[in-house]
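**User:**
Make up any protein.

**Assistant:**
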Amino acid sequence: MLRRTIDMRSATAPGHESGSAVSDPTSVVFVVDDDVSVRESLEALIRCQGWRPEVFQSAEEFLARPRLIGPSCLILDVTLPDLNGLELQKRIVDRADMPIIFITGYGDVPMTVEAMKAGAVEFLTKPFVHEVLLSAIRHALERSEGALNREAELRALRDRYASLSRREREVMTLVVCGRLNKQVGAELGISEITVKAHRGRAMQKMKAGSLADLVNIAAKLRVTFAP
């Protein structure tokens, strides 16, 4: 049973929580807590639910681990020796694919506000019922998968954009800024027919089925016109 932190009286069999789907065993739930009993308890709970736990006793030990590419979340104690939980959160602010769930033996409003403003998905005060934590983990892993999907989509768009010729990029930029083919031709010093050809190839390479699609892609890539 979980010692001190989580009430296990409402525990259910792995993958059979009320209203939930079977957990993804490829999802990793990191735990950073300097209390060995908490680490062992959370490790057992996480494994019981079908996720893969990885536990660390300090922020430094966690930071030494190579970055994971895959669905994950971090259960992080606020009070840690040397580098505390809020400081660690600042160190990994670029890791949107790894949402953070804070746990603490005590907490105050300013601390909670700081953590949530920095992107934490939950701030739990010990002791808490296990279902509250499990619900937060499911939510965090869903956010992680969404962030990974968006990153993969953006990488694919960048690769496609990199495949465009210089002229195709120029035409695409002017087109998504609202220029008509005739206007694009005038600005670039090429014929309208040539503009149409470059525009067609750009849309094909970017896999844009319409001008609206191309505009949306340009927005994601932050393609803008610089006079």
Summary: Residues 130-162 form the longest helix (33 residues). Confidence is low (pLDDT under 50) at residues 1-22. Residues 163-221 form a domain with the Arc Repressor Mutant, subunit A fold (CATH 1.10.10.10).
